[in-house]
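Box 3.1 A note on notation
Throughout this textbook, protein chains are presented in two layers. The first layer is the amino acid sequence; the second is a token string describing backbone geometry. Keep the layers aligned when reading.
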Amino acid sequence: MSTKRQMWGDDSEYDEFAAQYDPLRNDRQTRRARKQKGNHTAKKSQTEILQAIAEPTALESDTFATSYKPSRYESTWLLQSLKPFLQQEYISDVVAQVRGGKEASVYRCAARQGLGLDWLAAKVYRPRMFRQLRNDKMYREGRTYLTADGHVQRENEERVIRAIGKKTEFGRQVEHTSWLMHEFTTLQRLYAAGAAVPRPVAAAENALLMGYIGDDLAAAPALSDVVLHAAEAKRLLHETLRNVELMLSIGVIHGDLSAYNILYLNGEITLIDFPQVTDSHRNTQARFILERDIERVCAYFAKYGAAANAQAISQRLWKRYVEPSPEIQAADLSRLLETDDPSEE
């Protein structure tokens, strides 16, 4: 194995719900004071917005000096996002950025003593005004809305749904919170089930904290940056499909699985990036999404001689976990994996 060089109407009727997502909205007078009044003012340019973000805030008076030195425009939102993890004593330092992306960046953080880990990875989302999110409507179909503590928002709450539909500031915050918590709670479920995913540690308003995959020198590379031997490719194909099958056994599909979202370290893989996780039973496009995930995975491993019939694998897994009765879906997964190697389809 050789590794290439590595480079991730706030109307008053919403009061009781707004408190779950934005503590600044608890007070009616505060909320009214924040409403735009009087004359219209021109929209700020992107440069002016960036400068505003970079202005000193109360946070900068806190003693949170980090080994990693963020850029001027990055520093404020980065420290604001990570401050809860510092206050809860999960992390003691931010050492380096290990992956940058249009939606989020990942940072290597020093874990506090007692967690049983030397390093943690903090996935920090960019400010909403500068994110370049893909259209995730297809993946959100069938999802419930989650609150900041990971609980399901009451589905019959029409006022919340109306705020989301009108794209009010509150509605956008509900969507953001739910989107982030779906990723975190999915990690929790998969980790507990024995999937090859990072250990979930904590969630904040704009960041997730999880186990770090890498060493003291560098983060683990993605499979897309690794060259495999044929025997290793076949073994890792089976391990990837084992995780796809395990996800289906608890009713979810990754939604964006490829060699870019699978890390490689010391001969083992770790699946990452779950914001587009899909409900396999409630999403009408779930089968298409599953087939696409499996086709991408099989195409990557086929380059190294690990051939597999993606269509046959998708069909078998779909029939086993989505179409059958609940009794069959609840069958013991370990027994199924011991008797059936999906890579041999």
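Confidence is low (pLDDT under 50) at residues 2-41, 49-63, 129-133. The chain has twelve helices and eleven strands.
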